[in-house]
Amino acid sequence: MCLAIPGKIISIDGELMAEVDYGHVQNKVSLKLSPDAKCGQWVLVHAGFAVQVLDEDEAQETLALLRELAQYV
């Protein structure tokens, strides 16, 4: 099973790499699959790539579902 995690872009460099904030962790991800993503937007990240731009409501709903699932692990 593949899982993409929502994160918020906090900075972008000229190489289509972004710093993404997941709440408590920040990580570099590639924007090659979502080259139109902008700083401040939410993206779904899988295997180091931003695969889709989300609106904030979608991102928060996904995060809530992931927190709910974590209760069963």
Low-confidence stretches: none
Q: What would you call the structural class?
A: alpha+beta
What is the tally of beta strands? 5
**SSE string, helix = H, strand = E?**
EEEEEH
Distance between the termini: 15 Å
The main β sheet shows up as: 5 strands, antiparallel
Number of helices: 1
Indicate the proportion of strand residues. Answer: 35-45%
Largest beta sheet: strand ordering: 3-2-1-4-5
- Provide the gyration radius in Å: 12 Å
Q: Give the helix level as a range of percent.
A: 10-25%
Mean pLDDT: 94
General form: elongated
Question: What is this structure, in a nutshell?
Answer:
The chain has one helix spanning about 55-70; strands at about 5-10, 15-20, 25-30, 40-45, 50-55. The chain is of the alpha+beta class and about 70 residues long.
Description:
- A 5-stranded antiparallel beta sheet has the order 3-2-1-4-5, with helices on one face.
- The mean pLDDT is 94.
- The protein contains 1 helix and 5 strands; from the N terminus they run E-E-E-E-E-H.
- The radius of gyration is 12 Å and the shape is elongated.
- It has 73 residues and is of the alpha+beta class.
